[in-house]
Amino acid sequence: LANATSNELLIKVLYAPKLPRVASQRAIAGSSVGINCTADANPVAKLTLLKSNSTLSEASQPTLLHSVPSATRNLTGVYSCLASNSIGSARRDFSLTVLYPPAVQAPSSVTVREGASLQVGCNVEAEPPPPFTVNWRHPGSGRLLGNSSQLLITAAARTDAGEWTCEAQNLMSPSDGREPRNGRGSATVQVTVQYPPGMPVVAFTAGT
To answer: In what residue span(s) does the Ig-like domain sit (predicted)?
Structure first.
């Protein structure tokens, strides 16, 4: 026993990447976005961030961090985090949604005859999409009609002439814990109401 020797045996277990950990996000347009993807593997996996099968960034370490200083609408979509090593690979899809305030479009002007029906629509694009608040405001009279993207007046009166503004509002709630924001947008329509001439007014001036 005095001459006995002992040897230590080190066993390394190699395994393919486990499913990457990455979360879907909502971010307000113009704000910074950070995409964090991690994967457990041995040997360490190569991490690849993809959108529409196009590579955005890569990292040969346990964590990939992809930063965007100012989010724009075209970043909205489905992304993938791919982890791969010599044993195998794993992939997880996630979404990034860029929130933005309403973009409102409406005809610049509309003409209608007195007594006829007036119908004007405004098109609203926003993220999050409907339901959101849409109102029509007539600053000249202080009238407020809503909640609809369609302005409908069954019998147009002369007092309906002037500027009508389509106003839209949504609530943008990011997923990173930042305060929600109200988004607003508007478009103005100039309404002209045509009407026939009134009775002529004749004035007589006495001669001197």
So the answer is: 20-97, 101-192
User: In the chain, pLDDT over 70 holds for what percent of residues?
Assistant: 96
* DSSP bridge partners of 73: none
| pLDDT given at position 116 | 97
Q: Is the separation of the CB atoms in 36 and 63 below 8 Å?
A: yes
Can the peptide bond before residue 131 be classed as cis, meaning omega within 30 degrees of 0? yes
Could you confirm whether domain 106-194 is CATH 3.40.50.300?
A: no
pTM for the model stands at 0.82
Q: Tell me which residue has tokens 């849409």.
A: 134
Q: In this structure, what token pair is assigned to residue 46?
A: 């190569």
Cβ within 8 Å of residue 49, ≥6 positions away = 35, 37, 55, 56, 57, 58, 64, 66, 79, 80, 81, 82
120 φ, ψ to 5°?
Answer: -130, 135
Q: What CATH number was assigned to the domain covering residues 25-100?
A: 2.60.40.10
Residue 95 tokens, joined: 């979404």
Mean pLDDT of the chain: 92
The CB-side HSE value for 162 (13 A sphere, CA atoms) comes to 12
Return the CA Rg of the chain: 32
CA separation (Å) from 85 to 46, 54, 91, 175, 204?
6, 19, 12, 31, 102
